[in-house]
Every structure is written in structure tokens, then in C-alpha cells.
Write a structure and sequence with these properties.
The complex is a heterodimer of chains A (764) and B (232).
Chain A lengths: L13 H6 L4 H11 L5 H10 L2 H4 L4 H4 L9 E3 L6 E6 L2 E9 L1 H6 L1 H17 L4 E11 L5 H21 L3 E8 L8 E11 L14 E6 L9 H4 L20 H17 L2 E6 L4 H13 L2 E5 L12 H6 L5 E6 L4 H10 L3 E9 L3 E6 L2 E7 L2 H4 L12 H8 L14 H9 L8 H4 L10 E3 L6 E4 L6 E7 L2 H6 L1 H17 L4 E10 L6 H21 L3 E7 L3 E2 L2 E2 L3 E10 L16 E5 L10 H7 L11 H16 L5 E4 L4 H11 L8 E4 L8 H6 L6 E5 L2 H10 L4 E7 L4 E6 L2 E6 H16 L16
Parallel strand pairs in A: 4-5, 9-12, 17-18, 24-27
Antiparallel strand pairs in A: 1-2, 2-3, 3-6, 4-6, 7-10, 7-11, 8-10, 9-11, 12-13, 14-15, 15-16, 16-21, 17-21, 19-20, 22-25, 22-26, 23-25, 24-26, 27-28
Helix pairs in contact in A: 7-8, 7-10, 8-10, 10-13, 16-26, 19-20, 19-22, 22-25
Chain B lengths: L1 E6 L6 H12 L2 E6 L10 E4 L20 H10 L4 E4 L1 H8 L6 E3 L7 E9 L15 E8 L3 E3 L2 H9 L3 E6 L20 E5 L5 E4 L17 H12 L1
Parallel strand pairs in B: 1-2, 1-3, 3-4, 4-11
Antiparallel strand pairs in B: 5-8, 6-7, 6-9, 9-10, 10-11
Classes of the chains: A alpha+beta (764), B alpha/beta (232).
């Protein structure tokens, strides 16, 4: 059909094309596809769908190398969320997504809408959301601007999730100057469904109506997807209007209405109108079903008059869904929405003609052949080269670094590490999140992984996000392997068998060779670890251009891991449970302090090689933990990572503030190692367990070839005592408690400010 | 025995209350839709937690105008038990079933944690399974839980023994004075009953403390007490 230019549309000039983030080559491709120049509306549609955020054009070739299959994977990458079977006809849908750029300019709404978006991705699969996690990275907390961002992001996450009634149960918060200008806000949602009720966002059935459901479309968030596909600059403050505004109350209604719709049998597909709004949801559903669609923008319910088709198509107004219903069921769909005080409007239909068409009344204003709008987006494999400066940092001999005088007292060092905001208790954060609503939370925030019971079942799931960006920075391949291994280990420390992951790749500008190198190597490391540990990737998100004028963030491939427990009543916690229990170290101490929190916190040094990560050893450790906890032999299990063995021991003793239990351990067998490496080195493949039956734990470990040594006992006293050779290190629990629990509240009580720490030019 | 659990738009603990009644107690529960005018012959009405109408304007301020509240008020007037939990407590106050109001937490933050309550009265329809003075562990999860009332009301509540649950400080809390509360509540009030004793409002969530697996089963007593009271 003839496509009409609308009166008042700007002329398509090279400058306008560039402003839409479309390269000359991409523009030529577009003209080839259309056989003519695009209209302004078409240019907008393409700029959104071919943005990095929607098209994954710099990451897709790499993502294809990730393992995605297992017999229990019901839905892998390419849908709104991944889905795995967990037995008894039940399944778990889960996905992680970033909202970094919006949160950098408007922390409260940026984080809130990030939660909203990932919730919708999960419930459109037919799953009832049962848990939220979030993985947050901020700059150093001594900046008033960073405190403003932290307070806003945490409140945004809490206000949204709390209102919708989904518990926030786990996650991580890391503080590092590398994230100063560009915080990372990744939210993960986990939902529960019956396998038989799994819903996919595949448009099908010629003549089936396409229905816009939920909130009306406004002018907010236009070009959010494109905004998320460029570097952050001081001018981004002026792009604050591109950040969407969330309404968790409407989300809750939409959640209930959507699940009711899916269970009603009246609809064939449903998808969130998320990034690039109506455009991407309709085009992606059509492409998955390989069908044509036509959308009439004049029928879309809008918040304000005189919105142009361009605005309606690209709006990222929140709490909206696009539904393909069965023909003739329109009134039944409408009735369900009305019950929840929401609107539903038929705005288009599935058509036989292989075309993606947008009309304004009867006038065609945009038309793309077949599904090429989605499939024709180019992919890129840029040059990759490791930064020599980073290689030099990795190769630096950090073991030669002299100790500070204060370090003659290891308790001082331990206290410093426990009060490091990255290690310290995040209670200030998670106390603001409802973690118990829906009454499934068996192990909540504050330990390793969270554990949820599955209703009407003896089973449970364990969930955790992990990534040490400093490791990935210094060695992307090793760092990504460790991120997967650590997430798996955390999950296994509850007794759960790691099953599958979702990932969030947060990187800088991929057109820079050193950044693309990091991305490529990290994906390779992730693929190695996921293959070795049998945890396929079921989906995820890529967030590139995480750069501010101060440079790129640490490459941060966040892993969201889901594990399964056969008997949730056996779930282990991280903290010591009973005086008299023996403490067993699974795995080996390390001789290295490379890339450690110790180096950064005590010496201000980011250097050295990250710890070695032997994936076979990790698998053996996981097997040992799962078996020992499943057999009920272990009363606590804690991953030994950030801050090393001494920090892990202290955490086991003090993290349960209602029941702190002291312990005595003897590390003399390793007295030959450098003391600081023994105490604070971050070797992988290790866990601390406490048990009334150390012999049995050692025997189980031996079966799997895991080194296991009884290093001491929980004595229930008010100190942590560590003997090494002739030396005795004695730390009072009260002092460790203060360092660990008061660090963040103390800093957050200082004033916060939205103003930048350094002067910025305000763009107009 | 039948519990009628009211679902307002934005209620999100209706499911938790339903599970507590059906799975833990083995009794009957029905969801009562806010737009209806029928309590479905429920013996006990539960106003559940959540964010009815998004807590927009003020928590509970809009929900009290829901059609079903006419029947809830009539049920209360007849002496029928009404259990308002968290947002349900806020709704009950807005509806005039209970005196006072729940204001923004003193620290201006949402607070989610397991707290310790002291059972001040063990002779109510909601607490007859507890011992007077018993301390119990129940989670809270709210942003607006600071119980507030004028001096006369407080005096009357205390004088008539209508403060049923009070927050107490965890052992070793520094600086815990006479009244300790996580949210700044006056007189550390966590739960009160109406002058007839048949309406209980409490900010903590007994329906979430129903199994050792969840960290506490101390909340079951509230529901069991209702069984005893209604059967009597």
C-alpha cells in the first residue's frame, strides 16, 4: 500500500537520520528494504528497533555462543523470560534486566520502572511473580551525589515492589569509584507457573484482534531505548523527560488482570510494551509468529490530545500490555480488564499479508515488508584488543606490596574489610524491601542465596545474583567464569542444585576495541562456566554504553542463578547455628591477594590477577554441598569469597544479629602461606560449613575429591579466635558487629545531594 | 468456620491470609470482592495488608469507600470479629472502626523485619491462645505504621486495656526507653481493639508467621484464638 507522509513531518535529512542514532550504512539498508526513503514515522520506528537496547546488534553474535539447552529448559533466550521445569508439573520463569541509564539521571523512577518492566516480562509468561532480586553498583559512598542515587534507587525499588506485593529477597550492592558517573541497576524477577499455563508472545491467527491493555499512552519515555544505547554525558540530565514514570498500583491491577486473561483461554499472546513501547511489542510478536500485523494508532487510548503517531509508537509509558486475543473474544477480554478498572482497546489485527503496517485511520503511515524490521537489523563484530594498561595492572606483582604498619594487627585489617561498604551488611538497603509477603521466604536477604518454598510441594528454589566487576576488569574471561561459579556456589550453600542462569551484561561502548575485547572474553568465560556447571543461559539483557565522562564502568556481567532444593526444610543458612558444631573448610586457602577487596580497601590498589577458578573443582564442591546439606549433616554453609577466609568466618559468626556465635579456628596447617593471603586472599572453590558430624562431611567431600579440613569449632563465645602457628588473633564479636552493621547506616546518615560533585555544564 | 478475606484493588496479603486460614488452620476461607455487597456468611472478616488503591491520597482513605465496607461495618456493629492487618488496620481506622491513625514511619522509610511484640491482653477474641506478657516474633512490612492518637484517646485505650500488642526492643538494644518501637508508634502500640473488643487492628503480619520454615509460627495463635472465640 502507498505510505503517506504526514503533514508537518520534518524532512528526512542526514542530520535527522544521525540524530536518530542510525548510521549511514544502516540508513542504506533501510532504503534497500523499503525501496524508497522512509517517512518520519518509519525513521522513528527503525531507530527504536535497531537501537542497541532492542536489537543487541553488537552482542548477538557473541550471545549465540552461550549454552542454552537442558532437558528442563522449557523456554530459552528470545522470549520475555526464560522458563525451567522444576518438577510436579511446575515451572519457574525468570529474567534480569537493567535500568542503568534512567537510574543515572532519575534514580527513583529509573529504578522503580526497572522493577515494573521485569515484573511484566515474567507475568506475561503466565507466571505469578514470587521473588525480586536486584544487583546494584554505585560509586564510592563518600560522595553526596552517590548517596542521593543510592537512597533514590533503593526507595524506588522498594516502593514499587512492596506495592505490587512481590518480596525482594536477595541481590548485591557494590560500591566502587568505577561506577561513579554511571550506576548499574539490574532487577531480576522470578515467577512460578504451571507448565501447562506457559504463555508465549507469538502473534498468530489471521483475523485475531490486537488489543492495547492497561494504562493509557502518554508522552513519557519517548526514545528511552535509544537513550539507553548511548554514552551518558552531562547533557543527559536534560534527557530526564525520557525517563518513564511508574505506577505500581496500576501494575498490580495489570498483573492480576493479565494472569486472569492468560488463564481464561481468550488470548493467544501477550507482551509488555516495554522498551520502544508499542513498536517493539507489536513487531516482535509478529516476527516470532512470522505473521503480518496492522496497527491503527488513532485507536490507541492516549493520555493527552494531539499525540503524533511517532509519539504513540515510541512512547514508553509504563504498565501497558499488548494482547493478541482470539477473534470473537473481545468482549470477554474487555470484561476482565473492566473488573480490574483497566481499559482495553482493539487497535489492530493479525493479517495474512506479510507486512508490518501502521495506519492512522485509513491512511497508511508506515509499512515494512515481512518481519524484516526485526530480522534485517545489522549485527557488528568490532575490533577487539586488550587495553595494555589493564594487562599491566593484571601482571603487576601485588604480593610484593609492603604492608601498612596498622596491618601488624590483623584484627584492624579485618575490621576495615568488614566496614568496607561492599562487604558490610546491606541491612540499611533490604530493610526497605518487603521480603516476606506471599509467605514463601525461607531464607531472606542478608545471607548467601535466598530460598523460597514452593506452595503445595516439599521443594524450594534458591536464587542469587553475583558478579565481581573488579575481577572482570582485570581479566574478563576469568572474571566471568568466577561470576558464574560464585553464583552457583552461593546457591549450593543453601543446599540447592544450580539449574540455570539469566545474565545482564553491563559494559561500556562496544565500538572501543578494549571494551569489545572485554565483552567478547567475558561471554567466552561465561560460556565455559555455564557449560562446565550445567547451568544454561535462558535469557538476559545487554546494557552497553555504560560510560560517563569519567570513563567506562567495570565490565559487569551479572549472573542471576536459580537452583532447586528437593527438600526445602533442609535449607542451610550462612550463619553458625549451634555451639559445639565443628567448622570445616571445603577447598583450599590461597597464597594470592590478587584483585582482592583487601588490596582495594587497605592499599587503594586495583591490580593483580583474579583468583584461579577451576570449574571441575567448583562442580565437585557444589556436589559436596548439595549432598551434605540434603543429607541434613550440615547446619550452616557460607561461600568464602569477598574479603577471604577471615571475613567469611566473621560473617558466619555475626551476620545473624539475633544470635551471634563466636568460634575458635586453627589455620596452622597453612602457616607457611603469607598471613594476609591466608586471611584475606580470595581463592575460589571454597565454602565454610559447620556440622555436628565433621567426619561425615569429610567423607562426603573425599568422595568428590574436595579438600576438607576441620579447622575449629563454634564455641558460642563473644570472640572470633584464629590461631596461626604460634600466633593468636582474637577479635571481639561486638567490634566486628559494629564494623559490619553500622558502616552503611553511618555513611547514609550524611547529607545527600542531587547536585553533581564536580561542576557540569547544564545543557539546554 | 469461615473467614471472609476482602480483596481491594491493591490488596496483596489477601493470599497470605487465605493460606494461613486454609493451609495452616485447615479452616474455610473465601475471597470477598470489594465491589460486592455480600460477605458470603463469613464468621470472621479479614481486611488484609497491601496497598489498597496504591495508598494514594493516604493509606486506607479510598478503600473505606469501597462498596463492601458497608457490610463490614454492619458485621462489626453486630459484634462480628474483624481482623485488620497492616493496610487493613489503616482502612479500619479510616473507616472509623478503630480510633487513631497510622502515620509515616518516624524514619521516613519502609521497614521490613521480624519484630518482637508483647501480648498485653490474652483475654480477647484474637489473643486467647497466648499468655499475658508473652513475647512473640512477627514480621512487619510497612511505610506508614506509626500509630498516633490524641491524648484522650490514648488514655482511654490504655485505661480500657485495649492495647493488645506492643512492640518491645530486641534484647541489648541501646537507648531503648519506656516505649520502644521500630516506627515511632505512640506508646509502642502495634495493635488495638475496638471498644466492643471485636475489631482488632495490628500493623505486624500474623499471617506471615505461620511456620517454623518462615522463621516464626507465633502468628498462628491469632487465628486459633478466633476459632475458640467464634465457637464459644
Amino acid at each position: 500500500m502507498t505510505v503517506h507522509k504526514r503533514p508537518g513531518d520534518p524532512a528526512i535529512t542526514p542530520a535527522l537520520v544521525a540524530e536518530h542514532g542510525i548510521t549511514e550504512d544502516e540508513y542504506r539498508r533501510l532504503i534497500d528494504m523499503l525501496g524508497r526513503a522512509p517517512t518520519f514515522t518509519e525513521l522513528g520506528v527503525v531507530s527504536a528497533l535497531w537501537s542497541e537496547h532492542c536489537s543487541y546488534k553488537h552482542s548477538r553474535p557473541l550471545l549465540r555462543t552461550l549454552p542454552t539447552k537442558a532437558d528442563y529448559v522449557l523456554q530459552g533466550p528470545g522470549e520475555n523470560a526464560g522458563v525451567i521445569a522444576i518438577g510436579d508439573g511446575l515451572a519457574v520463569a525468570f529474567k534480569i534486566e537493567s535500568h542503568n541509564h534512567p537510574s543515572a539521571v532519575e534514580p527513583y523512577q529509573g529504578a522503580a520502572t526497572g522493577v515494573g518492566g521485569i515484573l511484566r516480562d515474567v507475568f506475561t509468561m503466565g507466571a505469578r511473580p514470587i521473588a525480586m532480586l536486584n544487583s546494584l553498583r554505585f560509586g564510592a559512598l563518600d560522595s553526596a551525589r552517590v548517596r542521593y542515587l543510592v537512597a533514590g534507587v533503593v526507595k524506588g525499588i522498594g516502593d514499587y515492589g512492596n506495592c505490587v506485593g512481590v518480596p525482594t529477597v536477595a541481590g548485591e550492592v557494590v560500591f566502587d569509584p568505577a561506577y561513579d558517573g554511571n550506576p548499574l541497576v539490574n532487577a531480576m524477577c522470578v515467577g512460578l507457573l504451571k507448565e501447562s499455563e506457559l504463555m508465549r508472545a507469538v502473534a498468530q491467527g489471521v483475523g485475531n484482534p490486537i488489543i492495547a491493555v492497561g494504562a493509557r499512552t502518554g508522552r513519557d519515555g519517548i526514545h528511552g531505548a535509544s537513550f539507553a544505547s548511548e554514552d551518558l554525558s552531562d547533557a543527559n540530565e536534560a534527557k530526564r523527560p525520557r525517563v518513564q514514570v511508574g505506577d505500581p498500583f496500576t501494575e498490580k491491577l495489570l498483573l492480576e488482570a493479565s494472569l486472569e486473561l492468560i488463564h481464561s483461554g481468550h488470548i493467544v499472546a501477550i507482551q509488555d510494551m516495554g522498551a520502544a513501547g508499542l513498536t517493539s511489542s507489536s513487531a516482535e510478536m509478529a516476527a516470532r509468529g512470522d505473521v503480518g500485523v496492522t496497527i491503527d494508532v488513532s485507536r490507541v487510548p492516549v493520555r493527552e490530545p494531539h499525540m503524533t503517531p511517532y509519539e504513540i509508537l515510541l512512547s514508553e509509558s509504563q504498565e501497558r500490555m499488548l494482547v493478541v486475543a482470539k477473534r470473537g473474544r473481545e468482549d470477554a477480554v474487555r470484561a476482565i480488564l473492566e473488573k480490574w478498572d483497566l481499559t482495553a482497546a482493539v487497535i489492530g489485527e493479525v493479517i495474512a499479508e506479510p507486512v508490518y503496517r501502521v495506519t492512522e485511520g485509513d491512511t497508511v503511515i508506515a509499512e515494512f515488508p515481512g518481519t524484516r524490521l526485526v530480522t534485517d537489523c545489522p549485527t557488528y563484530t568490532p575490533d577487539a584488543a586488550e587495553s595494555p594498561a589493564i594487562r599491566a595492572l593484571r601482571e603487576r606483582d601485588v604480593d610484593a606490596l609492603p604492608e601498612r604498619p596498622e596491618e601488624s594487627d590483623p584484627v584492624w585489617t579485618l575490621t576495615q574489610l568488614l566496614s568496607s561498604p561492599t562487604i558490610a551488611s546491606k541491612q540499611w538497603v533490604y530493610r526497605q524491601y518487603d521480603s516476606t509477603v506471599r509467605t514463601n521466604t525461607v531464607v531472606g536477604p542478608g545471607g548467601d542465596a535466598a530460598v523460597l518454598r514452593i506452595p503445595h510441594s516439599t521443594r524450594g528454589i534458591a536464587v542469587k545474583t553475583d558478579c565481581n566487576g573488579r575481577y572482570v576488569y582485570l581479566d574478563p574471561r576469568a572474571g566471568a567464569r568466577i561470576a558464574v561459579a560464585e553464583a552457583a556456589r552461593n546457591v549450593a550453600c543453601t543446599g540447592a542444585r544450580p539449574k540455570a542462569i539469566t545474565n545482564n551484561l553491563n559494559f561500556g561502548n562496544p565500538r572501543k576495541p578494549e571494551t569489545y575485547y572485554q565483552l567478547r572474553e567475558a561471554v567466552a568465560g561465561m560460556a565455559e562456566a555455564c557449560t562446565a556447571l550445567g547451568t544454561p543461559v535462558t535469557g538476559g539483557n545487554v546494557s552497553l554504553y555504560n560510560e560517563s565522562p569519567r570513563g567506562a564502568v567495570y565490565p559487569t556481567p551479572v549472573i542471576g542463578m536459580v537452583g532447586l532444593l528437593d527438600d526445602v526444610s533442609r535449607a542451610a543458612r550462612a550463619t553458625f547455628a549451634a555451639p559445639g558444631d565443628r567448622i570445616v573448610l571445603l577447598g583450599e586457602p590461597t597464597a594470592s591477594i590478587g584483585a582482592s577487596e583487601y588490596l582495594q580497601r587497605i592499599h587503594g590498589v586495583v591490580a593483580g590477577a583474579p583468583p584461579a577458578c577451576d570449574l571441575a573443582a567448583e562442580q565437585a564442591l557444589i556436589d559436596t554441598l548439595v549432598e551434605a546439606i540434603g543429607a541434613g549433616v550440615v547446619t550452616s554453609a557460607h561461600d568464602c569469597s569477598d574479603g577471604g577466609l577471615a571475613v567469611a568466618l566473621a560473617e558466619c559468626a555475626i551476620m545473624n544479629r539475633g544470635r551471634q556465635l563466636g568460634a575458635r579456628v586453627d589455620l596452622t596447617p597453612w602457616a607457611g602461606l603469607p598471613l594476609r593471603a591466608l586471611l584475606f586472599g580470595e581463592g575460589q572453590g571454597r565454602a565454610l560449613v559447620s556440622t555436628p558430624d565433621a567426619k561425615r562431611v569429610r567423607a562426603l567431600a573425599a568422595q568428590h575429591g574436595v579438600p576438607a579440613r576441620e579447622i575449629g569449632a563454634v564455641d558460642g563465645g563473644d570472640t572470633l579466635q584464629i590461631a596461626v602457628g604460634g600466633r593468636s588473633i582474637v577479635a571481639k564479636l561486638a567490634a566486628l558487629d559494629e564494623a559490619y552493621f553500622e558502616a552503611i547506616p553511618r555513611i547514609m546518615s550524611r547529607p545527600a545531594s542531587a547536585a553533581a560533585d564536580s561542576p557540569v555544564t547544564t545543557a539546554v | 468456620m469461615k473467614f471472609g478475606i476482602v480483596t481491594f484493588p491493591g490488596s496483596n496479603c489477601d493470599y497470605d491470609a487465605y493460606r494461613a486460614v486454609v493451609e495452616t488452620l485447615g479452616e474455610t476461607a473465601v475471597y470477598v470482592w470489594h465491589k460486592d455487597h455480600d460477605l458470603q456468611d463469613a464468621d470472621v472478616v479479614v481486611l488484609p495488608g497491601g496497598f489498597s488503591y496504591g495508598d494514594y491520597l493516604r493509606p486506607g482513605a479510598i478503600a473505606r469507600f469501597s462498596p463492601i465496607m458497608t457490610e463490614v461495618a454492619a458485621h462489626a456493629r453486630r459484634g462480628g470479629p474483624v481482623l485488620g492487618i497492616c493496610n487493613g488496620f489503616q482502612i479500619a481506622c479510616e473507616a472509623g472502626l478503630l480510633p487513631g491513625a497510622l502515620l509515616r514511619n518516624a524514619n521516613l522509610q519502609f521497614i521490613s523485619e521480624l519484630v518482637t511484640l508483647r501480648v498485653e491482653r490474652a483475654d480477647t477474641a484474637f489473643t486467647n491462645r497466648y499468655r499475658p506478657g508473652q513475647t512473640i516474633a512477627i514480621p512487619i512490612a510497612h511505610g506508614d505504621g506509626r500509630y498516633t492518637a490524641d491524648a484522650d484517646t490514648l488514655q482511654r485505650l490504655e485505661g480500657e486495656g485495649r492495647v493488645v500488642f506492643r512492640y518491645v526492643a530486641p534484647p541489648g538494644t541501646p537507648g531503648a526507653g519506656e516505649w520502644w518501637s521500630p516506627n515511632g508508634a505512640m506508646h509502642a502500640i502495634a495493635g488495638i481493639v475496638s471498644d466492643g473488643g471485636n475489631v482488632l487492628g495490628m500493623m505486624p503480619h500474623p499471617e506471615r508467621a505461620v511456620s517454623p520454615l518462615l522463621g516464626s509460627s507465633d502468628g498462628v495463635g491469632v487465628f486459633q484464638s478466633l476459632l475458640t472465640a467464634v465457637a464459644a
